[in-house]
Amino acid sequence: MGTEVSSDKNHDNNNSSYDDEQLAKQKAIDDWLPITSSRNAKWWYSAFHNVTAMVGAGVLSLPYAMSELGWGPGVVVLVLHVLELFNYCLGSFSG
User: Fold this and answer.
1) Based on the domain organization, do 62 and 27 belong to the same domain?
2) Each residue of 41-68: b (16+ CB within 10 Å) or e?
3) pLDDT over 70 (residue 4)
4) d(CA 20, CA 53)
5) How far apart are CA 20 and CA 16, in angstroms?
6) Which of 5, 10, 51, 69 could bond to 73 as cystine, CB 3.0-4.6 Å?
7) Which residues contact 36 (CB under 8 A, 6 or more apart)?
8) Are residues 85 and 48 in the same domain?
9) Please, are residues 74 and 65 in contact by the beta-carbon 8 Å criterion?
């Protein structure tokens, strides 16, 4: 029975050293990461960032589309899209 207790102590010491190693590894990763708990990020910062990322892609794609289509077809497609969007918005309010 005495050996069982000592093996439990050795097992606890091994777990403790394993836990210390894991904590050291986690601390090294946390120190390396630029995002830490000390930053005061709010949910609306993330929402704003996501919206600007999506709008940015649209803002960059419009000049490319116009350059590929040219003035005539580009303006026609743009006007048709605005009319479609307007129709969609009015349709969603009436139903």
Assistant:
1) no
2) eeeeeeeeeeeeeeeeeeeeeeeeeeee
3) no
4) 41
5) 6
6) 69
7) 30
8) yes
9) yes
> Quick one: 51 and 94 in the same domain?
yes
26 has a pLDDT exceeding 60: yes
Dihedral of CA 26/28/33/35: which sign?
Answer: positive
Shared domain for 62 and 83, answered yes or no, is yes
At residue 63, what is the residue type? P
From CA 2, how far away is CA 54, in angstroms rounded? 67
Query: Residues 74, 66: contact at Cβ < 8 Å?
Result: yes
pLDDT of 12 above 70: no
